[in-house]
Specification:
By secondary structure, this protein is of the alpha+beta class. Helices cover about 25% and strands about 30% of the residues. It has four helices and seven strands. A hairpin with a 2-residue loop joins strand 6 (about 150-155) and strand 7.
């Protein structure tokens, strides 16, 4: 799936001159973005995330379709959608609830599972890009079995984000 998504990024690249593209190894679905966090808080964050993961059941996630936030004509974020995301949505809600108990703000918008392909630095109308996104609205990228989640550190730079996995948490509830 990463190879298909990376090929899509390569196809989109000529249409988005002012886009910070996500490297193939960095493609992921974000359940919750925490922002800057003091390292001293990591153990409590890991503990509540482990509890949320222990209550979740492994699930299948289909990645399908292209789009943009807030819209294809004024794109800020280019994405591939994560379809059949009910289980991912439940997990995101559980993570949001667990972290709210530690004082992190609850998400204001409903969870929209997606894989970010690129971030537009200076959003402006781009009819060619909007047309390609519309044409790819039903494109299939594959399915993945989600059996674990990761607590990640992201460091942004002009060359893109660098991610470091801090902890891997297994979705532990058996499906039977």
């Amino acid at each position: 799936m990463r190879a298909r998504l990376a090929a899509e990024v390569d196809a989109l690249r000529p249409l988005g001159g002012d886009v910070a593209w996500v490297a193939a190894g960095n493609l992921h679905v974000t359940l919750k973005f925490l922002g800057r966090v003091d390292a001293a808080r990591l153990p409590e964050i890991e503990a509540v995330l482990a509890e949320a993961a222990a209550l979740a059941t492994p699930f299948e996630l289909a990645v399908r379709g292209l789009g943009a936030f807030p819209s294809a004509t004024r794109a800020r974020v280019l994405w591939a959608g994560a379809a059949e995301g009910a289980a991912a949505g439940r997990l995101a809600t559980d993570v949001d609830e667990a972290l709210a108990g530690l004082g992190f703000a609850r998400e204001a918008r409903p969870f929209a599972p997606h894989v970010t392909l690129g971030r537009v630095r200076e959003p402006r109308r781009n009819a060619a890009l909007a047309a390609v996104l519309a044409a790819g609205a039903r494109r299939e990228f594959g399915r993945v079995r989600v059996e674990r989640v990761s607590l990640m550190r992201s460091e942004l730079s002009p060359r893109g984000a660098r991610y470091t996995e801090l902890r891997t948490l297994t979705l532990a509830r058996s499906s039977g």
